[in-house]
Amino acid sequence: MALKTLAYDFGASSGRAILAEYDGKKVSLTETHRFSNDLVGIGNNLYWDILRLFFEIKTGINKTATEGHKDIASIGIDTWGVDYGLLDKEGRLLANPFNYRDPRTFPYFDNIEKYASKDEIYNQTGIQFVNFNTIYQLLADKYSGSPALENAETMLMIPDLFNYFLTGEKVTEYTIASTSQLYNSKTDDWAWPLIEKLGLPKKIFTNVIHPGQMMGKVLPNVAEELGIPSVPVAAVASHDTASAVAAVPAE
Q1: Residues taking part in catalysis
Q2: What is the reported pTM?
Q3: CA–CA distance from 65 to each of 101, 120, 132, 199, 221 (Å)?
């Protein structure tokens, strides 16, 4: 009997569900669902339609199950980097996540040295300075008086947010954390001195786990709705670029 896993790959304009079957010798891949991923403009801001995207995840699981693959052994999700959702103390999503193309970050990127020196940021995070990184998004939330940030108990990057919707577990995967420009790969932890200096709320940052660990299992009510067992959801390299590099057939 083949080992079956279901993988989701989200890009900035589309997403797909891929069933991988391993028979002991080779891996066979079958696309079971494909869908668009469209930014939504409201006023002067750009957002992701995050609930529709989770609907597409559930649709992909259900289609895979009804096509004879209820016996999937695990699920994994990768997405683009830097964007995030904020949850309240009850675990409810406070607002639609902003799209990384949203222009609210530009003043903070252009004037970042008002808040911390570039040397300090780079020495702690080692990440390229790009105007849509999570660091600038959170500064924009902070200084605009965002009610979502003011009331947030948890920040989850986009793949971690989807995993939370599936499992109820609030954790952050390492490769997606690295896109934030707030993670220190040398200490393998959040860049706490930088986070403190920027005045960002420390409580919103969750524990970080590495690819290959398990996020949790699909919640029983979700599993029942989708016609599958309560299977594990794995922490893959959840930044899509990291997954692409991991898949390169090279030593």
Answers
A1: 240
A2: 0.96
A3: 35, 49, 37, 46, 16
